[in-house]
Amino acid sequence: MVDPNKKKDDKVKSMFGRVVINPSPKVQDYILDFSLTISSSSSFIAKFTPFDFDDLRRHHKCHDKAKPVSVCDDFPPNFPPPETNTTLTLCVDQNGCCNFTTVQAAVDAVPNLSMKRTVIWINSGMYYEKVIIPKTKPNITFQGQGYTATAIAWNDTAFSANGTSYSGSVQVFSTNFIAKNLSFMNVAPRPRPGYVGAQAVAFRIAGDRAAFWGCGFFGAQDTLHDDRGRHYFKDCYIQGSMDFIYGNGKSLYEDCQMLSMANPVAQGSKSVSGAVTAHGRGSADENSGFAFVNCSVGGTGRIWLGRAWRPFSRVVFAFTSMTDIIAPEGWNDFNDPTRDQSVFYGEYKCTGAGAVMKGRAPYVQSLNDTQASLFLNTSFIDGDQWLLSYDS
Keyword set for this entry (predicted)? Predict the structure, then answer.
């Protein structure tokens, strides 16, 4: 008789190849649960969910069988490049082919308060670790090998981390952070209905002037904590269920895909099972908000575009395609009608079955050209002052 635990172990190893090094049984359970969730929710998820884990192996070169083969044989020569007056490059590879085998070790090696741009080049693989970049480490770039090839994952929840904000698999508190071509995951299991403390953040950005190109953010619920500061997201993929982009940041999301994993609802039901955003602007004096331009929203469930986490919540969707998972009212005031007069929720030239404005909540605005112009480009986040200096 085959040991059922061995069958589970074999399935995890087959799914992840060699990228998770000797995971504990509990970690295997978390990874297996998460992977089954994201792979079976819908055809939309099956189409866009990354991590064909066979592709995580970067060594496809054919070697002469007569010669001993090292996993580092086809590693780029003369890498990382030498330090310059403006740039320091550190290299992370699980097989020990360069400076570090973990991302956090590379972060720890960055000189405090360095004015140089430190590029942390992260090879293909799943890096199962919790990563924190403190305020003393500005000007860091995470450079992955593609968001379907390089990922950082952990499994904290609000309960295990003593707060939702602290559950983030990766947390950035420094300024001038950049991430390119990698994914951030929280692989804690999807919570059971009514379970307290199950919120699980994949990424928390709490520093000013951050930019993300071609990144993936994967979680079952509160995936991306866009906490505070000015941020730019380009060609990113963000997956979750309830409030899966939340915080009080001032951020522009451009050409991004938002995928709902909310529970399906019965046909004809008016119940709502998820929300894309929960912006936390607390007063009219706070200069924050989320703007989504040329994006798409799809997936499962019946969801809102946003909930008014704080009374002056501000979110705009422009030129965004929306499937019919969007509830007709579109938005929610957090069940507090006093917020109807202070929130700013706007839509502009969106398309798809979910973008029909008829039936929207009365406090939602269909923006005119002048109103929308404030949210449509990087001037919304003062990008002319800082973003142009980033090599995108």
Answer: Aspartyl esterase, Hydrolase
Band (pLDDT 50/70/90 cuts) for residue 172 is very high
- Quote the pTM value: 0.84
Q: How far is CA 273 from the centre of its chain?
A: 20
Give the confidence band of 389 by pLDDT, cuts at 50, 70, 90: confident
CA distance 276 to 265: 16
The three-state secondary structure class of 195 is coil
Rounded Cα distance, 297 and 239, in Å:
10
Stated length of the chain: 392
Res 68: pLDDT: 56
Residues 151 and 185 sit within 8 Å (Cβ to Cβ): yes
- Written as six digits, the tokens of 228 are 């505070």
Which stretch of DSSP H or E encloses residue 348?
Answer: strand 344-348
Pairing relationship of beta strands 344-348 and 314-318 according to DSSP bridges: parallel
Residue 84's identity, in one-letter code, is T
User: At a CB cut-off of 8 Å and minimum separation 6, what does 287 contact?
Assistant: 250
Cα angle 254, 258, 264; round to 5: 160
Instruction: State the residue for tokens 């990228």.
Output: 19
Domains in the chain, please, with CATH?
130-382 (2.160.20.10)
Where in the sequence numbering do the catalytic residues fall? 222, 243
